[in-house]
Here is the input.
Amino acid sequence: MKTYIVGVGMTKFEKPETRDWQYWDMAKEAGTKALEDAGISYGKVEQVPVGYCFQASTAGQRAAYELGLSGVPVYNVNNNCATASTALMMARQFVAGGMNDCVLALGFEKMARGALGGGSDGGDFKTSPVARHYGIMAAKHGFEMSPPTAQIFGDAAREHMELYGTTEAQLAAVGAKNHRHSAHNPYAQFQDVYTVEEILAAKTIHRPLTKLQCSPTSDGAAAAVVVSERFVEQHGLGDRAVEIVAQAMTTDTAASFDSGSCIDVVGKPMSRAAAEQVYEASGLGIDDVDVIELHDCFSINELLTYEALGLCEDGESGKLVESGATTYGGKWVVNPSGGLISKGHPLGATGLAQAAELTWQLRGAAGSRQVPDARVGLAHNIGLGGAAVVTMLRGFN
Here is the structure.
């Protein structure tokens, strides 16, 4: 059964503690915007998967109650950085499977300032669900005092440089592009433009990654209303409906660990597998895609994801971003929102914020950051531990 996004909403992503609000306040803002965008009431919603990582159990109910006390099922979802796209996938499955005609996917996060730890529990690495991943890193590169997530991705960046000749300037070009894009996004945490030279000169977090190549901790929420084709027709929503053409989630396989490479352990194999499943299911390939929102938690991960999604061959991603192929005027526009690096990264909201951006782009409603003639969009969201979700979307035009 076909599924459609007919309403999206999000809060501005902000530095933690910028606003005096609770997670249910931000969830109410995003959820209300999505319902208003769809032109429906909360009473039409039949189920609500809610994503978050840092709040207590049943925080999803506390958040959803701000939208209405209708008694519908609420599911609490935690899949690390892929949490929100997991909530979106659950919503799509409920509708595609014929269980429901209207489901609200909601995601939020209220984070602490400072670098993200080794897992959503913030505990020690021996008991962390990503202990196996960090063990691969430590065996090859040792364990330093820099933030662990920056360390494992920074080590992946050094491996890519050693294998393929990727340069620090090419890594910085990712940050420069995404900061430039976010200048046109009112929802972005940062809206400052930086040159490659300024990004290279910024504080080093874990070599070769500087601060302006790393996603920040953020507060924020996002939501999407997912409905059936029947619901679209009954409510006259065809002019705003964006089809979820195909979607896939993969987790780690032996390919993530057997090589002993940080490139693999941070998610490239599972991203590639999810993309291949989506291309097969949709009948669309990367050459059919106009606009992409992908998981640039660090600049190196944007380059790795270019290769995993098939934008280029392995080792060619540094040259690809440097060529301008992934910005306005190029073959694709990647992260027109500013991506995680500049828009922000509240873990439980990120994947739904990607869906919101692509929905606006495919409706032709993205304002000054609009990708010309955008018809097909692709979202990519990963979480260490691990989960990779890839979603293919198509506009109604």
About this structure: The longest strand covers residues 220-228. The first helix runs from residue 23 to 38. Residues 118-123 have pLDDT under 50 and may be disordered.
